[in-house]
């Protein structure tokens, strides 16, 4: 039997974390590898993302999330239209090298933004790319074409924290 940290229930821990949440969300569209989605959930917990949005019906590997899914606000949308309707009015930033307008280092991060990552094979679908307010690339120096999606998610969350976290990220 696992002992709940700090002698609190899961609900009490979630309540304690709520006011500490960061002012961004991370969305993953149809990631094909369930381990990657679990790893993104675990990393998003480390940055206390406002929410983790899963677009599509692909599962995630709970062991990769290392139990952090129980403390997170995970929102699932069956398709792109449902997702876009739910985030209407929020700034959507796609993370995609091939369609980027600027780099991670140049992009502005307005409050309440949603970072959007696509699948490992297909990237961000065209309809979602068209809905993005900005599309950014993470600079690369090798010959490979892309970062693993879980690594890319961690990089954008880390850059958000470096710039915006009042707890001392910068």
From TrEMBL:
GO annotation, biological process: methylation; RNA processing
Any GO MF annotation of the entry: RNA methyltransferase activity
Residue ranges occupied by any tRNA/rRNA methyltransferase SpoU type domain in the UniProt entry: 25-157
InterPro entries in the record: Alpha/beta_knot_MTases, rRNA_Methyltransferase, SpoU_MeTrfase, tRNA_m1G_MTases_N
Keywords, sorted A to Z: Methyltransferase, Transferase
PANTHER family: RRNA METHYLTRANSFERASE 3, RRNA METHYLTRANSFERASE 3, MITOCHONDRIAL
Protein name in UniProt: SpoU rRNA methylase
Organism this protein belongs to: Chondromyces crocatus
């Amino acid at each position: 039997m696992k002992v709940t940290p700090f002698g609190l229930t899961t609900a009490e821990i979630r309540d304690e974390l709520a006011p500490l949440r960061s002012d961004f969300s991370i969305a993953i569209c149809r990631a094909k590898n369930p381990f990657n989605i679990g790893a993104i959930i675990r990393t998003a917990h480390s940055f206390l993302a406002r929410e983790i949005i899963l677009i599509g019906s692909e599962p995630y590997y709970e062991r990769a999330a290392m139990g952090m899914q129980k403390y997170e606000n995970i929102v699932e949308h069956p398709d792109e239209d449902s997702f876009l309707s739910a985030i209407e009015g929020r700034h959507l930033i796609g993370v995609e090298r091939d369609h980027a307008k600027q780099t991670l280092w140049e992009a502005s991060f307005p409050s309440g933004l949603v970072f959007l990552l696509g699948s490992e094979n297909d990237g961000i679908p065209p309809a979602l790319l068209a809905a993005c307010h900005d599309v950014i690339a993470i600079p690369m120096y090798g010959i490979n074409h892309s970062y693993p999606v879980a690594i890319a998610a961690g990089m954008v969350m880390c850059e958000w924290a470096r710039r915006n976290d009042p707890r001392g990220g910068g």
